[in-house]
């Protein structure tokens, strides 16, 4: 099946696939990912391929959207990922993003997340979106606020002991 890709001024966002295993392995093992999102037990490139195949691809096939690899147009560098997630045990969908440390604080996260948020509302028919973030993850909270999401409460995700902030936004073009 042909899935949508998206562009911004500096970025290409395309569905993550097994050829992105090196990126996913590196990303899921960065100190921020481990501290704020959690250990996904992706300890090798092979584990990353399996994670993509078993965790990311099924949602893409089912809904037509999911996790996108963020690629810098200028040189083809894979910077991180951004996507819309339909989590098991959670009502609705949420937006998420993560960049490799060397690409943080350059506006790429906001640029990618803005485009994915627009696609959610205008192309995928999503009317409400959440985001979850660690209370300690100030940079994520700031990015969510720049995207227009407002903190609306706290929650615990299934099988997780950490209380997270919940941010929400609705499509204003309803």
From TrEMBL:
Domain N-acetyltransferase: 11-172
SUPFAM superfamilies: Acyl-CoA N-acyltransferases (Nat)
Record keywords, A-Z: Transferase
InterPro entries: Acyl_CoA_acyltransferase (IPR016181), GNAT_dom (IPR000182), N-acetyltransferase (IPR051531)
Pfam families reported for this sequence: Acetyltransf_3 (PF13302)
Top-level taxon: Bacteria
Any one GO molecular function term: acyltransferase activity, transferring groups other than amino-acyl groups
PANTHER family hit by this protein: GNAT FAMILY, PUTATIVE (AFU_ORTHOLOGUE AFUA_3G00765)-RELATED-RELATED, N-ACETYLTRANSFERASE DOMAIN-CONTAINING PROTEIN
Designated name of the protein: N-acetyltransferase
Organism: Marixanthomonas ophiurae
Native organism taxonomy: Bacteria, Pseudomonadati, Bacteroidota, Flavobacteriia, Flavobacteriales
């Amino acid at each position: 099946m042909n899935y949508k890709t998206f562009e911004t001024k500096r970025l290409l966002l395309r569905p993550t696939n097994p050829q992105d295993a090196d990126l996913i392995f590196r990303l899921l093992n960065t100190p921020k990912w481990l501290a704020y999102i959690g250990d996904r037990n992706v300890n090798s490139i092979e584990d990353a391929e399996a994670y993509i195949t078993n965790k990311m691809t099924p949602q893409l096939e089912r809904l037509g959207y999911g996790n996108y690899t963020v690629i810098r147009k200028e040189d083809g560098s894979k910077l991180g990922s951004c996507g819309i997630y339909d989590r098991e045990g959670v009502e609705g969908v949420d937006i998420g993003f993560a960049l490799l440390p060397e690409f943080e604080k350059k506006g790429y996260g906001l640029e990618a997340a803005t485009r994915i948020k627009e696609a959610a509302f205008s192309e995928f028919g999503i009317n409400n979106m959440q985001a979850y973030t660690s209370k300690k993850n100030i940079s994520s909270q700031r990015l969510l606020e720049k995207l227009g999401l407002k903190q609306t409460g706290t929650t615990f995700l299934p099988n997780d002991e950490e209380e997270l902030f919940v941010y929400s936004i609705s499509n204003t073009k309803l």
